[in-house]
Amino acid sequence: MVDRGELADTFLTAYLAGTPDEVPAVPEPRAGAAPPAKATPAETVALHGCVITPTGPRENTWLVIEGGEISELTSRKPSGVPGVRTEGVLLPGLIDLHGHPEFNIFAPWEPPRFFPNRYSWRGSDAYHALVRTPQNTLQDKLPAGTQLRYAEIRALTGGVTAIQGASGLNRATDESLVRNVDLRIFGEHKARAMIDLPDGPDGRGADTLANVLAAIDRGEVNAFYVHLAEGQRDNQRSIDEFANLVDLKALTPATVVIHGSALARDQLGDMRDVGASLVWSPQSNLRLYGETTRASDALDLGLPVALGADWLPSGSTSLLGEMKIARQELTNQGRREQARSLVDMVTADAADIAGLGDRLGRIETGRPADVLVLARRDDDAYESVCRSTAMDVELVTIGGDLSYGRTDWVQVLAADSASPALEPVIAWGRPMMLDVSWRANPGEGDTMTTLSQLRADLTRLYPPVGPIWA
Predict the structure, then answer these.
(1) Which homologous superfamily is 95-353 in?
(2) Phi, psi for residue 60 in degrees, rounded to 5
């Protein structure tokens, strides 16, 4: 049997080979550099397939994108407009409501045992050797945003157009490759997040929490993400966190509880009663704790539930993968969930929980064209989505921009398919194009960072970077 301590030492020794302290840091982007040329589509483009709308699927429908918005859903292709017959399912871009993107450069971690709560594995030697120490080195050596950018590419190529959990140090004032729902989005910053609540009214972070709660009262914050009760169901420390949330007066209509794996049915009911919401990450829970949230109870009670892939060390490689774990676990809990409900958890319901239901999560005219095209896997459109994997992602647009897609389609749809913003990549053996320039709020000094450059920068310091297409 391999000793995990020896394995961790070997892993860390290999990672440290070459004495990274002697490796020069990657230079910061040149101040004042011209913004990159964006990989914009033609003025108007059209996509044909089965379109999932709020009222249900529409077969043989053209989705027309104009000026970055969905302008029309029609049975006839607009004349003179570049278009692609996808033969696939068109739906809103997926929304991943819980993650730690900067950690998503790491390969999956095999926990040595089940832990009682998140505090126990965070203090383990294995975690520090395999995750925390490499993370500290990369943060010290690379410009802010390098890991996030790589992680956003991973999310994007899995069909995700909006994520939660990116570090505010990276994106305090602008937006990056995918939308960051708890940072600046659509020109506003109306969400906040905390990993650990203060241990009482005078505990560490109490001032920060007070500011958040005051902002909620003023209507300035409409989503407050907080890790809570993350541990095994009989772990008293995890159980007590809900009472602490209530005592701190932090259970509000804006509260979005992440994990909640130790919450009892009555506590889930209390959340429902005040209008709070839940984000569920079953894969990570099962791998770290051997059990997960009573999601069937939450759904029975009518508590809004969304999904999050958490992070690559213990979570799913994509949100599409997380949907499959969620479905199986709901079956284990005695609830046979309909495919449409699972799709809503990563689109419309997720958008509503994030306070962005008026912009994201639904295919409707006048909304930003955050659109995902998946290869057809079943006659039922919702079932087709549930059966899809990252290999089935054929096109992703964010605000109408061609963010990621099949090379043959991008060549038809792009205003300039030879744009330097479009990077050719091989994804699952297929030729694809990746737009490395997209910004929701472009600013001076923006520079393009290709995937190949990111990969080189990261692997120079940390050779076993987790691959995107694997």
Answers:
(1) Metal-dependent hydrolases (3.20.20.140)
(2) 50, 50
| CATH code 2.30.40.10 region(s) in the chain | 44-93+361-439
CA–CA gap between residue 317 and residue 297 (Å, rounded):
26
Q: For 82-107, what is each residue's pLDDT tens digit?
A: 999 999 999 999 999 999 998 999 88
Buried b (16+ CB within 10 A) or exposed e, 158-185: bbbbbbbbbbeebbeeebbbbbbbbbbb
Give, as one character, the DSSP assignment of residue 318: S
Exposure class string for 418-441: b at 16+ Cβ within 10 A, else e: ebebbbebebeeeebbbbbbbbbe
According to CATH, the topology of domain 44-93+361-439 is Urease, subunit C; domain 1 (2.30.40)
Q: List C-alpha distances in Å: 28 to 33, 142, 286.
A: 11, 9, 39
Give strand pairing partners of 53: 56
pLDDT in tens, 312-330: 999 999 999 999 999 999 9
Closest to 278 measured CA to CA, from 359, 349, 361, 335: 349
Q: Which two tokens stand for residue 172?
A: 């305090």
Confidence tier at 168 by pLDDT (50, 70, 90): low
> Is the pLDDT confidence value at 24 over 80?
no
**Start-end of CATH 3.20.20.140 domains in the chain:** 95-353
- Comparing C-alpha atoms, which of 111, 120, 45, 30 is closest to residue 78? 45
